[in-house]
Specification:
The structure is a single chain. The protein is an alpha+beta fold. It has one domain: NADH Oxidase, CATH 3.40.109. It is 39% helix and 12% strand. The protein has eight helices and five strands, in the order ααβααααβαβαββ. Strands 1, 2, 3, 4 and 5 form a five-stranded antiparallel sheet that branches. The chain is globular, with a radius of gyration of 18 Å. The chain starts with a helix and ends in a 25-residue tail after the last strand.
Amino acid sequence: MEIFDVIERRRTIRDFENEKINDESIKKIIDAGLKAPTNDHMRDWHFIVIKDKSIVMKLLDSIPNGISEEDMNALIKDWNLNDTEQQSCYRDAVPKQHRMLADASVVVIPLLKQKTDILHPESLSHLNGLASIWCCIENMFLAATALDYGCTLRIPLGNEAEWSKEVLEYPEDYLMPCFIGIGRPKKDAVTIKQKDIDVNDRIHWNGW
């Protein structure tokens, strides 16, 4: 598959088939992540791959299972989501935060070595480690797409990261940027219209 075809096809998937994913495919996806650029050239990233559904469900205990229509409307108002296409994306995504990970074939927890206080950075350079692992995560999403799998992610809220550390027992000096779910997209998976962006409107040659 051509790289531009993969980029075009890459979408966040929140509806998965009940299908297992083999270990070799998981390794290929993570290995693609490990090929991403990194700020310190060390790629001090680790990945907890969870196939055991009982562990997945324990991990998800801290994530709300659904949301009422009233709360959804309040969220849209509180977050100033005024664009109708943006609202559609959130209306699909927010209620599925628990189920999409529960239904994924595998849940992957990426971890980065925390060398600075990322939550209280003294400068932008203190965020280099966090920025690097997001390059890794996008590589993983593209690799999964090339293998005809789909991915979803959730950035931890509240005490979700602390609970994940308690459940998975990873070292104190590693940081979890997100939950990743990987699986085969359902044939009738919801496809939300993305915002159409004309590249010519976003390029400023030689200055703004």
